[in-house]
Amino acid sequence: MFGRSIGCLLVVLCLAPVSLVGQAGHVPDPAAAPDLAPRIFAPIQPAPDPLARPLPHAPGAIGLRQISRAAGMIFFGKVIAIERRAATRGQSVQTVTITFRVEDAIRGATPGELLTISQWIGLWTDGQRYRVGERLLLFLYPRSKLGLTSCVAGRMGRFNLDAFGRVLFSAQHLSAFRSDPVLGGKSRVSFSDFALAVRRASEEE
């Protein structure tokens, strides 16, 4: 009888710690919050290179004066090459390089030159894309510290051209330029007229 009592007591003592551990909240358990590890140890993605003087993208929020003054390069040309480049020690973000044959220029480029720009790949993913063979007129921000650029105010800084080299206006452009004395009310203009409007807008106080 005494031996049986001792045996029962030993069983109770052995089972007690197990039941205590099994009660949630009584014993700290690092695995109880598995979502903490990803938050702490997840790789940090490099931030996109900040562009100079970014402008709002909302339609009607800006006009020719704003995009003209924010641009470091204004030219039209043909896309002749596109290349994706991985991040390196000297360039911490993935980029896409686009090479243009410049046909005419207002600022920051020379007619006839091959001009290559670098764009953060996130903008390409977001829709700011190019294709070989297309002809465009672009307002580009000044190159940043990482050598990157993009269209001023997104789509506002990008214009298609027709077969005669005339600048075509999207609905967003038409809304933004409706009060301009040269561009207002027109769906397309010659490059010379457009360049005149840009120079005048750049000089306005």
**Number of helical regions:** 6
Name the helix and strand elements from N-terminus to C-terminus, one letter apiece.
HHHEEEHEEEHEH
Low-confidence stretches: 8-53, 56-60
Instruction: Write out the CATH superfamily name of the domain at 64-203.
Output: RNA polymerase II/Efflux pump adaptor protein, barrel-sandwich hybrid domain
**How much of the residues is beta strand, in percent?**
15-25%
What overall form do the CA principal axes indicate? Answer: globular
What's the CATH architecture name of the domain at 64-203? Beta Barrel
How many strands appear in the DSSP assignment?
Answer: 7
Mean pLDDT over the residues: 77
Helical content class? 25-40%
Let me know the largest β-sheet: 5 strands, antiparallel
Q: Structural class given helices, strands, pairing? A: alpha+beta
Rounded to an integer, what's the Rg over CA atoms?
Answer: 31 Å
Q: Write down the oligomeric state.
A: single chain
Q: Which fold name is given in CATH as the topology of the domain at 64-203?
A: OB fold (Dihydrolipoamide Acetyltransferase, E2P)
Strand order of the largest sheet: 3-2-1-4-5
- Indicate the CATH class of the domain at 64-203: Mainly Beta
- Intertermini distance: 106 Å
